[in-house]
Amino acid sequence: EAVRLYFKGKLFLPTGPAAHEPVPEGDEHAAKQRACFIAISSNAAACKLKLGEYDACLRMCDGVLQLDPHNMKALYRQAQAHRAAGDVDKAEQALTQAAQLEPEDKVVKRELADIQRQRKEERAKEQRMAQKMFG
Questions:
Q1: Helical packing angle, 54-67 and 28-50, nearest 10°
Q2: What's the chain look like in SS3?
Q3: Is the pLDDT of residue 10 over 70?
Q4: Model confidence at 38, in pLDDT bands (50, 70, 90)?
Q5: Burial (Cβ within 10 Å: 0-12, 13-18, ≥19) of residue 10
């Protein structure tokens, strides 16, 4: 339901190439439209993430990041979607980018630490398997 309402809100905003054109300096109306478009897209991406629609979430995050490459929410949601889809490397890449923008963000730090812990566990498991196979 929420996703439907977010998309309904987008009907009142520029779409297609017009949505991605640079905002003219001093044009408050265009700046507000851009901020609204980013917020709606980011929130819709969060809904898609919760629904398990990771590809849709990633596409929406990519759209937000094209307009605002420093959008922390989009980077974090992108990382969550990549991780949920099983691509830990891309998740780590998005989180590293977010950490560069906000080095003190505790959630990002925690996610990066969790990925490192997961990788360490996987390496240990692989080593145990190799020891069993090769003595």
A1: 160
A2: CHHHHHHHHHCCCCCHHHHHCCCCCCCHHHHHHHHHHHHHHHHHHHHHHHCCCHHHHHHHHHHHHHHCCCCHHHHHHHHHHHHHCCCHHHHHHHHHHHHHHCCCCHHHHHHHHHHHHHHHHHHHHHHHHHHHHHC
A3: no
A4: very high
A5: middle
Contacts of 101 (CB under 8 A, 6+ apart): 70, 72, 75
pTM of structure: 0.82
**Residue type present at position 81:** A
Quick one: tokens of 5? 């309402």
Token pair listed for 38 = 């980013």
- C-alpha atoms less than 13 angstroms from C-alpha of 58 in its C-beta half-sphere: 15
